[in-house]
Amino acid sequence: MLPPELHPRTFRPYISASTSAPSLPTSFDGIYSPERNPNGGSSSSSLNSRSLRSSRFSPSAFVHNARIAVALVPCAAFLLDLGGTPVVATLTLGLMIAYILDSLNFKSGSFFAVWFSLIASQFAFFFSSSLFGTFNSIILGLSAVSVCSLANFLIGVWVSLQFKWIQIEYPTIVLALERLLFACCPIIASTVFTWATVSAVGMVNAAYYLMVFNCIFYWLFSVPRLSSFKLKQEVSYHGGRVPDENFILGQLESCVHTLNLLFFPLLFHIASHYSVIFVSAASICDLFLLFFIPFLFQLYASTRGGLWWVTKNEHQLQSIRVVNGAIALFVVVICLEVRVVFHSFGRYIQVPPPLNYLLVTITMLGGAAAAGAYALGMVSDAFSSLGFTASAVIVSSAGAIVVGFPVLFVPLPAVAGFYLARFFARKSISSYFAFVVLGSLMVIWFVM
């Protein structure tokens, strides 16, 4: 007779359910399911659905208030400055009413009072500001009004996330509001910040200001962040890796942020300087810099998960960083030499041409390559540390010769570069102090 394990199921009516073949999960969406809990047992379908809902949402405090404040508080101050007294008075009156309702424990009334205050202040802004007269263009005026309205709306969304009763009664809406806030803040905040900066210092380098603010807010919002309202216990069921569903932003928003980071400053520069973008080598270098500097920043952000939506294969990501980073780094260094070094600091270069071009390129390209390799974590073994140290020594020596340091004393900056590389490679405090002392001596010589 065959053993019971080999009998067909029709001939094994006495076998208990605990020894039957395990059922395979039918869902592969990456969301934690109670069936995968190693400590869980059988439960009814209603209990499973309730557990699924509880694993997706957990009412708690909004933990990203600091980064939202960095983006929206200056925007609010700028909008109040544009709107003037009518906006300030309207908003103050509305917030006082909201505070009174909140103190009376009328939470929903306080919530609607905040939103009515923001809406009323927006109408006051329309009638008190002179955006259309300032820009002398209907299209630019409408764009400015739209940006201000969106910033005001995002402030309202941020305030809404502070109400605990909304989290409890409308969990799906809270998740959507959090996602909307992170999706829109980088674009709107960088636009308003650039607008304020241009108003203060002028329009000449506006695209570079936008590029800087784009990089800052990309780092704050687009690098993957965990949601404040989703449970973190799912990590233990995914081998320690956080599921994608726990991230605030999805693939679409991450892709849009990347496109905004790479192309918006360049397109803004072309639109605002279209008549002079090809008049000189420096203006052409501006086009390359406005694309490749954010591109380098994007590659560095990928070490923190910035390209998680492209691929999760670490080997592929490292290949993307190394190959594309080398090309972008070369372009950026050459353009900086033309646009900045020889254009603005040519008087400090004490070496005659063509040797000056060679030494400056060795200094900048070698230093940038060493810094990039260290940032990407490629300085990890004895061979890479040796190459990193050699690069630091060569770069320090070439840079010293460029600024006119006496050839007889060139070993001094070479030793300083050696100790600097040793500090980064081995985290040696004594090497750091040696570099500081030698570097101070060279700075004193340069100043004197």
From TrEMBL:
Domain of life: Eukaryota
The keyword Repeat is annotated on this UniProt entry: no
Membrane spanning stretches: 86-104, 111-132, 138-159, 180-201, 207-226, 274-301, 322-342, 354-376, 388-409, 429-447
Keywords, in A-Z order: Membrane, Transmembrane, Transmembrane helix
Keyword Membrane recorded: yes
The protein's name in its UniProt record: Uncharacterized protein
